[in-house]
Design a protein that fits this description.
Elements: H1 2-14, E1 27-28, E2 32-38, H2 50-56, E3 60-65, E4 71-77, E5 85-86, E6 89-90, H3 91-108, E7 112-119, E8 122-129, H4 132-143, E9 169-174, H5 182-192, E10 196-203, H6 205-209, E11 217-219, E12 226-228, H7 231-255, E13 259-264, H8 269-284
Parallel strand pairs: 4-7, 4-9, 9-10, 10-13
Antiparallel strand pairs: 1-3, 2-3, 5-6, 7-8, 11-12
Length: 285
């Protein structure tokens, strides 16, 4: 039942407003008509439109848009910090539904989809394939992820080199909490493999505002370490430091040519995805 709910959630998020993440503008012998152009020496004669020739006594090539199918691999941070809660919103649940929605979209477009799950136990890898049964298996794997421990350590990144040799679109959903630059080491590794990388950076509203409804003691979900603070006194300095951190992170990823989108977990998923696609399309123009 949980898997069916995840599938239904993905369908409801996607249906009605998403037209595609990777539609090509390449002209060729596709299915959807795009335009006519004059025949040039060397053009494939099979592309000639003989009806246009009969009407105009001139040779025209009929061009169509080609849909390009790509391989999309989703990476999900399954470390313990992804169990952070703000009221009804849990980071990992948001991440699961975000990935499920994009996987549903990719599968509907004919893209191969796969999954990496990352925590201190290692890297779980699910090969990229394109069929509905594979999508159901991906939903099953997502539903059964339990956050635990720290983020995957760099020594385990060698597993990423065992995948397909072709370039993939990698969509990484994480809170970017790390101890010794292990997440940015991962992103450097993915860049080495020449993949296109998109990072969805999840943060909760109570993290952004430092508003934990009276709590004075804070515990690190990964190490168990705790600290006591006065939220009211610390809030101004905290927000200043957070703004500096977020800007530094944005510039660091931009320097690596990695697309970055920070999302608050109280933002409706359909709106978050719409904003992401709009921003992505503007950058591609």
């Amino acid at each position: 039942m949980a898997i069916k709910e995840l599938s239904l959630s993905a369908k409801m998020i996607i249906d009605g407003f998403m037209s595609g993440i990777n539609k090509s503008t390449v002209k060729g012998q596709g299915l959807e008509f795009s335009q006519y152009r004059s025949y040039q020496p060397g053009d494939d004669l099979r592309s000639l439109d003989w009806k246009m020739f009969a009407r105009s006594d001139r040779y025209y090539i009929r061009e169509s848009e080609i849909e390009t199918n790509i391989s999309v691999r989703f990476l999900i941070d399954a470390s313990a910090s992804m169990n952070h809660r703000d009221g009804d919103y849990v980071k990992l649940d948001y991440a699961k539904n975000l990935i499920a929605a994009l996987a549903y979209l990719g599968n509907a477009q004919g893209d191969a989809i796969g999954l990496y799950v990352l925590n201190d136990a290692g890297i779980f890898s699910m090969a990229a394939k394109q069929d509905f049964q594979h999508l159901s298996r991906l939903f099953y794997m997502l539903e059964n992820i339990q956050p635990k421990g720290n983020f995957t350590q760099p020594i385990q990144y060698k597993e990423l080199y065992a995948g397909s040799n072709k370039r993939e679109l990698l969509i990484f959903v994480t809170d970017l909490y790390e101890t010794n630059d292990e997440i940015f080491t991962l992103l450097d590794t993915l860049n080495t493999l020449k993949h296109e990388v998109v990072v969805f950076h999840l943060m909760a509203r109570n993290e952004l505002e430092l508003d934990f409804k009276g709590y004075a003691t804070f515990e690190d979900l990964e190490t168990g370490a705790s600290i006591q603070i006065d939220q009211a006194k610390a809030r101004a300095e905290y927000k200043k430091n957070l703004a500096t951190y977020l800007e530094k992170t944005r510039l660091k990823l931009l320097d690596k040519r990695i697309f970055h989108r920070m999302i608050c977990t109280d933002q409706p998923l359909d709106q978050a995805l719409r904003d992401f696609l709009n921003q992505r399309n503007k950058l591609k123009v």
